Amino acid sequence: MFKFLSLGVIGFTGLVLLVEKTLGMNGFLGQYVSAHPFIFISIYGCVIAHVTITCMSLSYHRYHTHKGVVLNKRLDMIMQVWLWLITSLNKAEWVSTHIYHHAHSDQEKDPHSPVQKGIVHALFLGVLDYTNGKNLPEVLKIRKTIPTNKLESFMQRNSFTGPTIMTILMVVMFGPLWGSILSVTNFLTSPIFAIGGVNAIAHWWGYRNHKTTDNSRNIGFLFPLNFIICGELDHNNHHGHMRSCSFRHRWFEFDIGFVYIKILHSLGLAELKNVYSPATLKQELSKKMSDLIDSDLHFKQRCEELARELNISYHEFKARLEAYCCGEKVKLERSCREFMNEVIRSVKANQRLNLNY
Fold it and tell me: For the chain, which residues make up each domain, given as ranges?
């Protein structure tokens, strides 16, 4: 390790001297950074983070791990090479670690859980947890089952070659000082936004649409951050329906990643396999409401009373409620809507309290 670091320092020093002698302290484009460094680095950081996390979300996460979408092979390889250059990550390690995370989400074996290790640890030391987690014996077994082509295998064997190439390009383009700062910005993208944002905060604080065995939460209302992280912050939606390539389950939620997937689909570059939508959530809520009415004597009696007032059968009235809950254009009296809302509030309360009905 010491020898490797020594060679790295010597190589970087040689690169800096070469660039200074041939291109000057600002390289090709460093003068644009030095004119407004804070503004440039802030904009650069947001753009690079969005592009990088979008590649991670669409390729590693929604395609290779959960199979909710199938991407064009060439497009997918472009995304994988970009992730290798910016973060040193590769498909086999990322996918195997993430599969293991879902198998033990927020349990003792979870490689990165704020429930188990605390939010401060998950935020600031999550990258170490990921590094340790990808080398666990169970994760290595999963990794052996993941097929890789020659380029993917090369990137896996040479993880840090990617960031090294990118650092050389950054120093040449922006000079030793700004190139080094922007290279660090590149490399921090995954620890800050993916590990810190998704694996830490989204398993600690927020609201829940779905009852899951873990502590996954939705914090997509932090819109600028959720945009940068490609919609990944509606994380309870994802854990509730892992195979869906859409993380938007309610009308007010927004998943820019699924927007990109639909654009790629329209261009023939992506094939949709599994999509969970706000309409699907309404259908599930409608069924839960109907089941609760049948299970709860008070609600069943009230439902029968309202049905008699409308001169229709109990089952016909329930069908109207279910249709209305699904968003269909069904006319309901105010008393019927109030009853339906009362049942739905009970459904959600039971879900929060982990009750069967």
Answer: 2-272, 282-352
